[in-house]
Amino acid sequence: MKWFQLPLGSFQTNCYILVNRQKECLIFDPGDESEKLISFISQKELIPKAVLLTHAHLDHIGALDDIRKQYKIQAYIHEKEADWLIDPSLNGSKLFTPSSPLKLSPAENIVKGEQKLTVKGFEFELLETPGHSPGSVSYYFKELGAVFSGDALFNRSIGRTDLPGGNHKQLIQSIKTKLLTLPNNTVVLSGHGPATTIREESRENPFLV
């Protein structure tokens, strides 16, 4: 497997595309600019199979409906944020983009609990990592040696916790018990900014050291 990183929208949210040998792919957090994302997928001749959301803030879901419609695929989200897709006051669009509130279709698949999942042939572990938001999750792919951490853990930083439902203490606990316990060479694919590793963040992240 290999992954591509595609920053999208005014928030430059990282959308990731994970591809297997058959050129099938999972799409993580299609935040905006659906035309740009669709063009990239077309150029690479990829076959989208599902959308995995790390959480439901506006900058991670803006292109979701366009992508589902374009490829006739389904979305996965944690149960604690299942209502956020349809509610602008919860997903933050009412606050940050009041002129264009996001009212999306509900996710087709609701996940919860620490578990191993297989989605369209892709195997991974679901890690509950709340704190940035109540239903934030990370997706750990052991075979790939990478974790899609959303806005929990960044390169030398952590997610903000001043938005509704945020909890700083909970976020720190999530990072230390769910992410920093992964193998040191695990690549951390964050919602914003460059990739990092568990080893680097364990040693250098000022919020965690």
Automatic annotation (TrEMBL):
The segment(s) forming the Metallo-beta-lactamase domain are 12-192
Name the SMART domains on file. Answer: Lactamase_B
Coiled-coil portions = none
Q: Which Gene3D superfamilies match?
A: Ribonuclease Z/Hydroxyacylglutathione hydrolase-like
Q: Which keywords does this chain's UniProt record carry?
A: Hydrolase, Metal-binding, Zinc
Identify which cofactors the protein needs according to its UniProt entry: Zn(2+)
By its UniProt entry, which Pfam families does this protein fall under? Lactamase_B
Q: What is this protein called?
A: Glyoxylase-like metal-dependent hydrolase (Beta-lactamase superfamily II)
Q: Which source organism does the UniProt entry give?
A: Peribacillus deserti
Q: What is the lineage of its organism?
A: Bacteria, Bacillati, Bacillota, Bacilli, Bacillales
